[in-house]
Design goal:
This protein is of the alpha+beta class. It is built from 11 helices and 12 strands. The protein is 31% helix and 18% strand. A hairpin with a 3-residue loop joins β11 and β12. The two termini are 16 Å apart.
Length: 400
């Protein structure tokens, strides 16, 4: 191990994830973020004034996120005004990117303790209007949703890049030959494992309720989901397509927080670290192939950690779509991943939900907890990102 400071995960917490228009629909994103920041700090002995920085992920920013939701949430959470906050936007990977950026700051001695995470209210994401070049234009103007996907697209962008996320994943199905039944089986597994994890108490310490909201568990979990029941759903993006509302992640609301610090900060934090950030990886591909981007991002992270797929005991891969998850898993199996069964052992985003800016914090927190619970030394967290990017982090459980 290098003599330089190492970045460690000390605690992770998130809200339950709500469905679009569901239990969290009345909760502002800045309030959701403030709640998990407060809770993350409450689980430590750290003086809030000793937080060097708050770094949050957020994919929208156009509405109540108020452009820099990290600073807004820091103030709302009651941290001292001297604690700065910055917001990272790498779309679905925003809060994983936040943790990666914070870990680099710790390793370079620019910070000792950084509070990271992310938030998204896809329910409350506003509609926007393009601003006219002159007052009172003669033509009509269309409202554009900021909830998900491309908007106000530059006409110079190649048309094959700007297809919908669903169409992009139908193209992955065509390229890699992942049949509809296999996608539905993967989605059913996500629901069943998520339900079993909640029933076993795995998520009890990772998830905290939102003030004033009656939601104890992730709202999208369907314990009765089966391959057969999901197979009865109609395709969403092509008449003869394979992707449905059942084998893709739902639009969601929620927030996550992950406290990172150096090993030297343990005494001030008042608890032992859960895991060390051992490697990071980023990768980019053609925008329409974004679902495949985690493959090389994870490979890069493993190389930087000095290990291979055969060393990995558990993987948290954000399930944007069943097809892209399966394509990534198949690639890693060919490179030495022990078994598909070690991926998303407590369910994934198809069941739990995918509030874009919060999901990276969720996968980091779930991975660290699963490694501890199951005694694994090495784990990988990975996520695909719209417009052709992927991120990955390798964690080491030094107690294993």
């Amino acid at each position: 191990m290098s003599s330089n400071p190492q970045a460690h995960v000390y605690t992770a917490v998130r809200t339950p994830f709500g469905r679009l228009g569901g239990a969290l629909a009345k909760s502002r994103p800045d309030d959701l973020a403030a709640g998990v920041l407060r809770e993350a700090l409450a689980r430590t002995e750290l003086d809030p004034g000793e937080v060097d920085e708050v770094v949050l992920g957020n994919a929208n920013g156009a509405g109540e996120d108020n452009r820099n939701v990290a600073r807004m949430a820091t103030l709302l959470a009651g941290l001292p005004v001297s604690v700065p906050g910055t917001t990272i936007n790498r779309l679905c990977g925003s809060s994983l990117d936040a943790a990666m950026i914070a870990s680099r700051a710790i390793e370079t001695c620019d910070a000792d303790v950084v509070l990271t995470g992310g938030v998204e209210s896809m329910t409350r994401a506003p509609w926007v209007l393009p601003k006219p070049e002159r007052t009172f234009p003669a033509g009509n103007t269309e409202l554009v949703s900021t909830t998900l996907g491309w908007r106000l697209v530059n006409p110079r962008m190649a048309s094959e890049w700007t297809v919908s996320l669903g169409e992009a994943n139908e193209q992955l199905h065509e390229i890699y030959g992942v049949p509809r039944a296999r996608q539905d089986a993967f989605a059913a597994r996500s629901h069943q494992l998520a339900h079993a994890a909640w029933e076993s108490g795995f998520y009890d310490d990772l998830v905290v309720p939102v003030d004033g909201v009656d939601l104890a568990r992730d709202e999208g979990i369907r314990p009765d989901a089966t391959t057969e029941s999901l197979g009865a759903l109609k395709a969403s993006f092509r008449p003869d397509g394979t992707i449905t509302a059942g084998n893709a992640s739902p639009l969601s609301d929620g927030a996550s927080a992950v406290l990172l610090g150096s090993a030297a900060a343990a005494d001030r934090i008042g608890r032992d670290p859960l895991a060390r950030i051992a490697g990071r990886g980023t990768h980019a591909v053609e925008p329409q192939r974004f679902g495949y981007a985690p493959v090389e991002a994870a490979n890069k992270a493993l190389a930087r950690a000095g290990i291979g797929w055969s060393d990995v005991g558990v993987v948290e891969l954000n399930e944007a779509f069943a097809v892209q998850s399966l394509v990534c898993i198949d690639a890693w199996l060919a490179q030495g991943l022990a078994s598909p069964d070690i991926v998303n052992t407590r369910g994934g985003a198809i069941a739990l939900g995918h509030p874009l800016g919060a999901s990276g914090g969720r996968v980091i927190g779930t991975l660290a907890a699963a490694m501890r619970a199951d005694g694994h030394r090495w784990g990988v967290a990975a996520i695909c990102i719209g417009v052709g990017q992927g991120l990955a982090v390798v964690l080491e459980n030094e107690a294993a």
